[in-house]
Amino acid sequence: MTRVLVVDDEPQIVRALVINLRARGYETDAAPDGAEALRLAAARRPDVVLLDLGLPDTDGVEVIRRLRERSRVPVIVLSARHASGEKVQALDAGADDYVTKPFGMDELLARLRAAVRRAAPAGEEDSGPLLVETDAFTIDLAAKKVARDGRDVRLTPTEWHLLEVLVRNAGRLVGRTQLLKEVWGPAYGTETNYLRVYMAQLRRKLEADPTRPRHLITEPGMGYRFER
């Protein structure tokens, strides 16, 4: 069963989420603040985290950063903060998705399922070589690993999925809408800010000079391309 960690200090929201998730077969834990969230994440090892940013003891963005120090668990932010800067900050810290309050339960569950699918082990693929090498890093598609300078690079499930789609289409332009739908799902065709944030993260982790990328190329106004 999929285990969900709900992190929110509003009891009525927690109760509604727990009831709906358990009714659909999810195992759930709940935390009212960041400290308890980090403790439960370590002890219970959830498959996905639903995280409010406005916690009483620490900002949710800091919780995301601390989770990312030790875990690739998908994190979906639930927040009443609508500003674009707040969304980018959360995504940049390592969140996988951002849902603004109030939200519909059907939409949230669809996004939760999509996040879990992105984190699931990939099935067998026959669309090209399983080991891709560049002058800066090596990608093992079968093992879902990336190495740079002989050391593993830690990618979140969303970062990995984005890189994988580009690598499996090496040398070809992948349009922004196609990328969004393949990585996040069919409801994300216009969330181009997600691509900007995640491509910047991948470049910081993989490119020798992130400001002048050689492998993760932007085609302005169209999409992205992976070059060896």
From TrEMBL:
DNA-binding span(s): 129-228
Domain OmpR/PhoB-type: 129-228
PROSITE patterns named among the record's database cross-references: OMPR_PHOB, RESPONSE_REGULATORY
Position of the signal peptide: none
InterPro entries: CheY-like_superfamily, OmpR/PhoB-type_DNA-bd, Sig_transdc_resp-reg_receiver, WalR-like, WH-like_DNA-bd_sf
Lineage: Bacteria, Bacillati, Actinomycetota, Actinomycetes, Kitasatosporales
Alphabetic keyword roster: DNA-binding, Phosphoprotein
Source organism (scientific name): Streptomyces thermolineatus
Response regulatory domain ranges (all copies): 3-116
Gene3D superfamilies: 3.40.50.2300, 6.10.250.690, Winged helix-like DNA-binding domain superfamily/Winged helix DNA-binding domain
Modified residues annotated as 4-aspartylphosphate in this record: D52
Protein name per UniProt: Response regulator
Alphabetized PANTHER family for the sequence: KDP OPERON TRANSCRIPTIONAL REGULATORY PROTEIN KDPE, REGULATOR OF RPOS
